[in-house]
Design brief:
heterotrimer, A alpha/beta (143), B mainly alpha (315), C alpha/beta (154), A: 143 residues, alpha/beta, Rossmann fold, 6 helices, 20% strand, globular, C: 154 residues, Beta Polymerase, domain 2, five-stranded mixed sheet, 4 helices, 7 strands, elongated
Chain lengths: 143, 315, 154
């Protein structure tokens, strides 16, 4: 494993993007970052700018308004990076399939920008913080 | 020739870049670990800050299209140079007090401003509205705490009888007198602001709220900023120990352990204030520095002058 | 005012209303035509002293309805004004934004999604649909199916 990827797995900084979610997944993500689950043990830190981030936590089915913004945020994330699709809506639009304002699940929009993007899926409605931590650990082990 | 090589060794390795960077990253680990313990959790392993810097060096450097490229790239390097020279100077004086020169405290005060100035320059070259807000706040913060900080150092200079050399100032411990204690407390809070710690982290950690001075930096340039902040965590408490607490004695093992204890005490004070306070607004911070600190330090200066004139060292 | 006095007070505007319905112990619904809605809103704000909470737009099959929700904080009573818009081709109602600025965005949203025109609204622009959404396609109208809306969006 090259040193870039190794150090990325030891210190993944996350940035949270909401592309039209009902906020349930967002609440669970913020729960995951509280002292109770202590993700700082793994080096995970919440950062306020996509340029500082290694992992994008994307929630929400991507609405037509959010799609260009999601593409721009992905372009602004310094590579190498990983995209996590959190929740049933982000993985495959969930119950909002065929909605009038839905342009597609997260991986469809990200692959328009970068066909080789690394995307990890954490299903659930909403996924428990334990599920999110398990997803992150499995994704980093697979890198 | 040998002198030149020796100076390069001092600046680059010990007590310069390598030494300060390693001790600085360990100090940031201490900050994170103590914060974690105060919050009843485990916290990161000791290698975490080193992995952070290594990871940042491996990411791509993104420069915004409208940014001023030269200033954008030069600003973090200027900040790093400032803190590197300050740290080298302070540690050299601690190890070999004969290296001190008259007026070196003025040079130290000047070098301490450089990282904050570099932050302001770098963020205003970022061409981003978030960074612009952060720049305005950082400028107000610097205007707020610089005056009380210089007043605190004036108290120390008066108490040492007008000496302007760090080695001479370091021989007495002004913190054990009334005016010295006032100046020490005020300068701890000004250091809190300079390091960008809560309650005065208005400029940078508004990152939590989506904006901040370092918003547009990424990759190796961000690694330089993180290193600068880590190295400030070594240089600034060292400066406080040198002028307020009787210096850093490296002659024998006993005094060396005591000096390291003083350094750790200042660090732990900064961490505990950081963990037990909320962030204040910029207007509250300015009022605090100019009104409360200003008045306290004016009283301290008067007490120091009286104490010096009548030979009362406890005043 | 307690609840009994409030009920009596609401009878004062009876001439502008079609009906006053007591939906529950602390919920009253005042049904009126679209033309009278501003007068009833002004009465609730100025004379009764209620607080505007939010508005709702509904596509009932034979007419459009705009329901304004008010809260009378003295007794915890919720007062709804249901304004019926009979014209289905060009639905229009007068905006209450000049009376209470908080109504500006919710009226924009109702206009965006249901196509009800709010007369005298200071800023009737798109709010929640994206900018290249085609004009004239109102997704939440009952005669526009989800498939039609998606087609029109492309």
């Amino acid at each position: 494993m090259s040193w870039k990827i190794k150090s990325l797995t030891k210190s993944p900084w996350v940035f949270h993007v909401n592309t039209g979610a009902c906020n349930n997944c967002d609440i669970e993500i913020v729960n995951c970052l509280t002292p109770k689950f202590d993700v700082e043990r793994f080096g995970i830190k919440l950062v306020g700018s996509p340029r500082h981030a290694d992992a994008l936590l994307v929630t929400g089915v991507v609405t037509a308004q959010a799609a260009p913004r999601l593409r721009e945020v992905y372009r602004q994330t310094a590579k190498p990076c990983v995209v996590f699709a959190i929740g049933a809506c982000a993985c495959d639009t969930g119950i909002f399939k065929d909605g009038y304002h839905v342009v597609g699940p997260v991986d469809k929009i990200i692959r328009e920008v970068d066909p080789n993007a690394i995307i990890a899926y954490v299903p659930g409605c909403p996924p428990k913080p334990e599920a999110m931590i398990s997803g992150v650990v499995k994704a980093l082990a697979a890198l | 020739m040998a002198e030149g090589l020796q100076s390069i060794f001092w600046v680059a390795v010990f007590p310069g870049f390598v030494f300060t960077a390693i001790v600085g990253l360990l100090a940031t680990w201490v900050v994170r670990k103590v914060s974690a313990l105060v919050q009843w959790r485990v916290g990161p392993p000791i290698t975490q800050p080193f992995w952070d810097v290594a990871k940042l060096l491996g990411k791509e450097v993104l420069i915004p299209q409208d940014a001023q490229r030269t200033v954008f790239i030069a600003a973090p390097l200027v900040g790093l140079a400032g803190v590197l020279l300050l740290s080298t100077m302070l540690w050299r004086i601690a190890i070999a007090p004969s290296e001190a020169f008259i007026g070196d405290i003025i040079v130290a005060i000047y070098l301490m401003v450089l990282p904050s100035l570099a932050l302001i320059l770098g963020s205003s070259a970022s061409a981003s509205p978030h960074a612009a807000v952060g720049t305005a706040r950082e400028m107000k913060m610097v205007m707020g705490y610089e005056l009380p900080l210089v007043l605190a150092f004036v108290v120390v200079i008066i108490k040492s009888g007008g000496q302007l050399s760090l080695a001479a100032i370091a021989t007495n411990a002004p913190a054990l007198s009334i005016s010295g204690m006032l100046a020490f407390l005020a300068s701890i809070l000004c250091m809190q602001a300079k390091l960008g710690f809560v309650p005065f982290d208005i400029a940078e950690a508004e990152t939590e709220l989506g904006s901040g001075v370092l918003m547009e930096y990424s990759g190796a340039l961000l690694a330089v900023w993180k290193l600068t902040q880590a190295m400030m965590l070594v240089a600034l408490p060292m400066f406080l120990v040198t002028i307020f607490m009787g210096g850093f004695d490296t002659n024998a093992a006993g005094p060396l352990a005591l000096s390291i204890g003083k350094f750790v005490l200042v660090l732990v004070l900064l961490i505990l204030i950081k963990n037990t306070n909320p962030r204040v607004r910029i207007d509250q911070a300015m009022k605090f520095f100019w009104v409360y600190c200003g008045i306290a330090l004016a009283v301290a200066v008067v007490l120091a002058i009286i104490g010096n004139a009548y030979g009362l060292t406890w005043l | 005012m307690n609840q009994q006095e409030l009920n009596n007070k609401l009878q004062e505007i009876k001439d502008k209303l079609i009906a006053v319905e007591q939906k529950a112990d602390n919920r009253v619904e005042l049904v009126c035509e679209a033309e009278n809605s501003v007068a009833v809103n002004r009465f609730l704000l100025a004379d009764v002293g209620a607080r505007f909470v939010i508005a709702t737009g509904i596509d009932a099959e034979d007419c459009f309805e705009v329901i304004y929700h008010y809260s009378y904080d003295g007794t915890g009573c919720v007062i709804n004004i249901k304004a019926l818009i009979r014209d289905r081709q060009n639905p229009s109602i007068e905006s209450i934004t000049p009376l209470v600025t908080a109504a500006e965005w919710i009226e924009r949203e109702i206009h965006d999604i249901l196509g009800i025109d709010f007369a005298n609204h200071p800023n009737l622009k798109r709010l929640i649909l994206n900018d290249d959404w085609p004009e004239g396609v109102y997704p939440l109208r009952k005669d526009v199916s989800a498939a039609d809306a998606k087609e029109a969006q492309k």
